[in-house]
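User: quick one, fold this
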Amino acid sequence: MTELSYCAQQIKDFDNDRFVAALFAPDQVREDLFALYAFNLELSKIRETVSEPMIGRMRLQFWRDAIPRVVAGDPPKHAVADPLSLACARASLPEAELLALIEAREADLDDIAPKNMAAVEAYAESTSSTVIAMAMRIAGVDPTQHADFVRSAGIAIALIGLVRSIPFQASSGRVTLPADLCEVAGLDPTQSQQWPRNPNVSEITLPMLLTAKRHLEAARKSSRDIPKAAMPAVLPLSLAALYLKALQRYGGDPKTLAERPIGLPRHLTLMWRSMLGRP
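Assistant:
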């Protein structure tokens, strides 16, 4: 078996949905997708790996300074910057989009729960949707021709992922769920370490899943004219749909989904949706 690149291994271990979706891409496109996703992973894990926000801001600043060099083909010595620079050269990834992703991640360091669902959707669009747009560029498809799909797909994937992450968030002491829904559920997002061991989060998750379903349906409706070449970049939406069904079946309880992980259906779903040419 061929040894995985650093970026591929990182995505396999920490962002497996995108990893298995990228396997449907041609070799070079696949490695460029891994580089993009590894960059996104670098940004997303900053908050949980630093002891204080200032250190996190220093790491974000490293990437702000690095991106112009990455795009220009003169990246700093870094396990992700080097392959990302190659991806930028081959796919003409816009410097502005890479920098926008960094700016969006600044909110992670504030430790303030989003005020409401609209705030969560805005954050999801600035992060998840931006990643989808750049992934489509890598696959050779202009995302500006599919803006409605990109926005809705990114928000759906992010919301469903956020619901799935609730057990981890509660255990980590940092919750990024809508503050107004937490209040309705009688839970304080700033005191997640004081939540009951198995809190009833259905008053939080069910409205989030309804919103995710709305975006999922909108994304699929607007996906009809997306070229088949874009499938490896957009197939994570198919897995999000799979998780959504399971979460709704479990009454919005992410703990049950975590205890009953979806195995083979993930791969079968990707194969089927890839053959259909529809995420």
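User: anything notable?
Assistant: The longest helix spans residues 117-138.
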